[in-house]
Amino acid sequence: QVQLVESGGGLVQAGGSLRLSCVASGSIFSAMPMDWYRQAPGKQRELVATITNDGITGHADSVKGRFTISRDNAKNTVYLQMNSLKPEDTAVYYCYAPLYAAWGQGTQVTVSS
Questions:
Q1: Could you tell me if 2 and 102 are in contact, meaning their C-beta atoms sit under 8 angstroms apart?
Q2: Which residues pair with 28 in a beta bridge?
Q3: Please, which residues have CB within 8 angstroms of residue 12's CB and are 6 or more apart in sequence?
């Protein structure tokens, strides 16, 4: 069992930056691959970025070069650094632990034009 709590969302102007954090508890974080997803209004939830327990990362084409996923195992935390934000990045962002099929509660990111 694992619990995930996201933070760091907010309202930002286009071109701005935000860093999302997701703190995990209840399991061995260092052994867990972690994902960030997002869901915009009226759209399906989509995978944004993924990181293995070894730190190997992958990013969706729509965010490649702008977003960076990282992790700090000492803090049981996975991050999503989001730069050069666009209005189309507006969504609720969720972290996800695939080994446990566990979702966080989500954090809202709104990018104004």
A1: yes
A2: none
A3: 18, 85, 109, 110, 111, 112
- Read off the pLDDT of residues 63-105 as tens digits, 9 standing for 90 and up: 999 999 999 999 999 999 999 999 999 999 999 999 999 999 9
Show Cβ contacts of residue 54 under 8 Å, excluding neighbours closer than 6 positions.
none
How far is 74 from 71, CA to CA, in rounded Å? 9
Q: Percentage of the chain surpassing pLDDT 90?
A: 94
- Report DSSP state, residue 89: G
Question: Which of 67, 58, 19, 3 has its CA nearest to residue 35?
Answer: 58
- Find how far residue 57's CA is from the centre of its chain: 12
- pLDDT band of residue 27 (cuts 50, 70, 90) is confident
Report, in angstroms and rounded to the nearest whole number, the Rg of the chain calculated over CA atoms: 13
> Which of 57, 41, 22 lies closest to 49, judged by CA?
57
- At 53 the pLDDT is 94
